[in-house]
Amino acid sequence: MIKLTMRVVSYALVLAVCFSSFGEIRGDVKISTHDLELTKGDEHNVSLQISNCKEEIQLIVQHDDIVNINPNVIPVENKTETLVTLVVKAVGAGHSEIYANVTNREDLQDVYLRVTVNKIPSLDTISTVIGWIYFVAWSVSFYPQIYTNFRRKSVVGLNFDFLALNLIGFSLYSIFNIGLYYIDEIKVEYNARHPRGLIPVLLNDIFFAVHAIIATLITIIQCYIYERDGQRISLTAKGIMSFFGVIILISAILCLSNVVHWLDFLYICSYVKLTITLIKYIPQAYMNYKRKSTVGWSIGNIFLDFTGGMLSMLQMIINAYNYDDWVSIFGDPTKFGLGFFSVLFDIFFIVQHYILYRATNYEENP
What we know:
There is one protein chain. The N and C termini lie far apart (about 115 Å). The chain is elongated and about 85 Å long. The chain has about 375 residues and is of the alpha+beta class. The strands form 2 sheets. It has a 5-stranded mixed beta sheet, with no helix packed on it. A 4-stranded antiparallel beta sheet has the order 1-3-7-5, with no helix packed on it. It has 12 helices and 9 strands. Helices cover about 55% and strands about 15% of the residues.
């Protein structure tokens, strides 16, 4: 009797598991692409593959003044598999997302479409060309100073605080780029926080940052080889760098203790880099003022940096116009503000070199 009862209970449990598993079977929904680039007025077809779905699917458009989709409601059908053609129409410039919504379903995060609509396609090409030009200008901008040091066999007039801050800034920038581009754990964390976002680091970002470190290190080596007239890193700069070092160290310890994520550590590195970008030119400008001379500070470096900064801001303005995305400049002014701030310093250095200290009393050692 006991054996019979246990057998009945076992069968009941098996049936319960089977029925519960059957009840959890949900349909599968796949979209043919996640990214679409259109010009205002264009239409494009996107496929939606639906398998064993018993619920009506509604497609939500984030900004219906930018893009429309038809149909936006897909009714329930009894077919095992359905292929639905969606017509996406660009009605205005900008960025918009389209995502699926089904009642009581939370497993459709991968069913989305990012649509980018421009006004003039040729402006995209112009923007790309400008981007490569300022990338080259910024990359080459390190070499006039290296050549000037080599020609003079002297680094007198080059501020060591600027070099030290530059090295730390680009090292942190490299850590941020390499971590977000190569380390899978960090990429998974980024995608978890921004499920529809793209990794904001490209391979050329890594190349630029690492190249900047190498060029700065070459300049620092020149400081040990050539005449330097007793120049050294100031106590103020050492204090600032120590403060940044404590922040980075504490952040790393918190990450190792699993208090914060490594993605947050990378963000902290990027914030310190941004701060350094804001202050790194001040020591050189003040040194020029004290010496009443720009001898030893390469004006070629300044012209290339000025070119890169101006083209960077021009690219942002072109993109903002082409995509009606002025918020990227005025709503989040960090990148634009840093470029603008650097250009202002470049203009100040040009004024120092060609106007204020054009007639200098400084004389090179024979």
